[in-house]
Write a structure and sequence with these properties.
The protein has 16 helices and 19 strands. The longest helix is centred in the C-terminal third of the chain and has 31 residues, at about 510-540. α1 (about 1-15) packs parallel to α16, α4 runs parallel beside α13 (about 485-500) and α5 runs antiparallel to α7. The chain has a seven-stranded mixed β-sheet. The chain has a six-stranded mixed β-sheet with strand order 8-2-1-12-19-18. It is an alpha/beta fold. Residues about 1-55 and about 310-320 have low confidence and may be disordered.
Length: about 575
């Protein structure tokens, strides 16, 4: 009964967590912005002077063959550029600004002697932060530990709040991402039951596989806030846009992992040691190096087991199959050292070049089952990005392919989401849609990793001295809300805004304090909502058998989601 009560309380908390008054924000519609189709290529930047009408909703139009070709070719081109380290510093380059300290480290900050910022990590968080700092006139360098950029799981969502942050950082970057993106807010999203499901003692509705449980409207909250609708863009395309339009050529240095740093005194900068033997000097160090952040490890005084090769962002995508196997085991030790939480889910992910049977009606859906669920979203270019989350202990790996079993991952997933009698291991026969996407996927395209998140770092803080963290290093969260990269984007914008106020290097610590204070409440709320949603999904099937609790959960989710989305999309 205690466990059942937890579900009831959790559902109630979900329904009550987001009343509009709790967040003290006002939605202010902006006029003169018009979106005419499912892509937002015709989006016009809002006029700051006009505040009297709302954006027009986009109208879904099927992708043309030319558009499909354009999306797929741009992805392939960007992935090739990333693999070839296009836009990154040459390994032979020796005249980098960071190799030599300033003559006077304790100094006034001027246009001729700007702040010098080094960022650990070249994923979305690091690139956006670099673009934001560069736009404010700072010198910026990124040290990325991976040997190349590569996607993990395909495209990522750039939700409306992140688009607004990008627009404020760099208009050209914003325009290019909107141009490259495919709108997902113009169709239905929500939760479905994955298989035929009754309720305890027949008290309630009999659900058939594929029935909608909850539907979300992600468009209206964005329009009411005067924001453009969410788009989905391939990760390497985002990276190349930021490299080409956000930062100077050669800003990113790959194969560069920070070993440790030394603070030289308040306002006197840092000495940063790389594992390859190089030494760098900067006024500010930003850890955007993922959930297993080496910067956070030293800043918070964690054990040496607390950091590693991050399975997220640029580094995560570059993991080979053998490295991913090692990472599955190492993550257990790192989680203990870094105070991170295993979500109880392992996640399989892939991008299938397949035009989904429901593409014109549905952009995002979750098929819910016993101890597992299957997530799919439109990836643009007649492709579907899918995630299969299965509840099991951490550290598991799949058998290696053999002549007898050349597709071990795919075979497992086809059994887990079996759409034919006798069904999966629980005897449940799944909705056909999961099989549709799995059968359109190649074995070598399927990636697997265990999912970890963490509690808000309210007391530990995100900064200490002239060092701070952002993105997953500061607030790792479950993917339920699609806000991981979006909150990292907001971090980059806010951090640059605070550093831009620094007139003397002695003011850096105060600026980093202000960055933390302005971000911690919002990210903590979003982390908590994402974690709560994940925990509820873990035992969703059990909860649905409890009289009254299941229907209450569904109602609470439906009622609370507009408030949650309005909070997420608050500019």
């Amino acid at each position: 009964m205690v466990k059942y009560a937890k579900y009831s309380l959790a559902a109630f908390a979900l329904s009550m967590s987001c009343p509009a008054s709790a967040f003290s924000f006002q939605i202010q519609p902006i006029t003169n912005a018009r979106i005419s189709s499912s892509t937002v290529r015709s989006y016009t930047k809002p006029s700051p002077l006009a505040m009297s009408s709302t954006l027009e909703a986009p109208v879904r139009q099927p992708e043309t063959p030319d558009r499909v070709k354009q999306v797929r070719e741009r992805f392939q081109s960007a992935a090739k550029d990333a693999a070839n380290a296009r836009g990154c510093a040459s390994p032979d380059q020796t005249d980098d600004w960071w190799r030599t300290p300033e003559d006077e480290t304790y100094r006034d900050v001027t246009k001729d002697r700007p702040l010098r910022v080094i960022i650990a990590g070249g994923g979305v968080a690091g690139l956006v932060t670099a673009a934001a700092c560069h736009a404010k006139g700072m010198k910026v360098a990124i040290f990325e530990q991976a040997s190349q950029y590569a996607p993990y799981g395909g495209p990522i969502q750039i939700q409306s709040n992140a688009l607004r942050a990008l627009e404020r950082i760099n208009t050209k970057v914003y325009e290019e991402i909107v141009k490259a993106g495919t709108v997902t807010a113009d169709r239905v999203s929500g939760l479905k039951i994955g298989y035929k499901k009754g309720v305890f003692m027949g008290l309630g509705k009999q659900y058939e596989k594929g029935d909608w449980l909850v539907r979300f409207d992600t468009l209206q909250p964005a329009l009411q806030a005067g924001l453009p609708p969410t788009v989905v863009v391939d990760r390497p395309v985002i990276q190349q846009i930021l490299l080409n339009h956000g930062i100077p050529d050669g800003t990113v240095r790959i194969k560069s992992r920070i070993k440790k740093y030394e603070e030289l005194g308040p306002g006197k900068g840092l000495k940063i040691y790389l594992e390859d033997g190089n030494v760098a000097y900067a006024d500010v160090l930003v850890g955007a190096d993922g959930i297993w952040s080496s910067v956070r490890r030293q800043m918070h005084g964690l054990s040496n087991d607390a950091d590693g090769f991050a399975a997220s962002g640029a580094a995560g995508g570059a993991l080979t199959e053998s490295e991913a196997r090692r990472m599955a085991k190492d993550s257990i030790l790192m989680a203990d050292g870094a105070n991170r939480r295993y979500s109880k889910f392992t996640c399989y992910a892939a991008l299938a070049e397949h035009k989904a049977s429901n593409i014109e009606e549905v952009s995002y859906q979750i098929l819910l089952g016993k101890d597992k669920y299957f997530v799919s979203t439109d990836g643009g270019g007649e492709r579907q990005q899918w995630f299969a989350l299965i509840r099991e202990p951490a550290g598991g790996v799949d058998p290696e392919p053999t002549p007898e079993n050349p597709t071990p991952k795919l075979n497992r997933l086809l059994k887990e989401f079996n759409n034919k009698e006798p069904g999966d291991q629980n005897g449940d026969v799944w909705d056909d849609f999961a099989h549709e996407l799995l059968l359109a996927t190649k074995e070598e395209d399927i990636k697997r990793r265990d999912l970890y998140d963490g509690s808000p770092l309210i007391t530990q803080k995100w900064n200490r001295g002239q060092v701070c963290i952002c993105g997953d290093a500061a607030h790792p969260m479950m993917p339920n809300l699609g806000q991981g990269g979006c909150q990292a984007t907001e971090d980059g914008y806010r951090l640059a805004e605070e550093l831009a106020n620094v007139k003397h290097t002695k003011d850096i610590e105060g600026a980093l304090d202000m960055y933390f204070l302005k971000r911690i409440t919002r990210t903590s709320i979003i982390q908590t909502i994402a974690q709560l949603g994940s925990d509820l999904l873990v035992d969703f099937d059990l909860m649905m058998t409890i009289p009254l609790v299941g229907p209450f959960f569904l109602t609470a989710t439906q009622v609370s989601m507009p408030f949650i989305l309005r909070y997420l999309y608050t500019p």
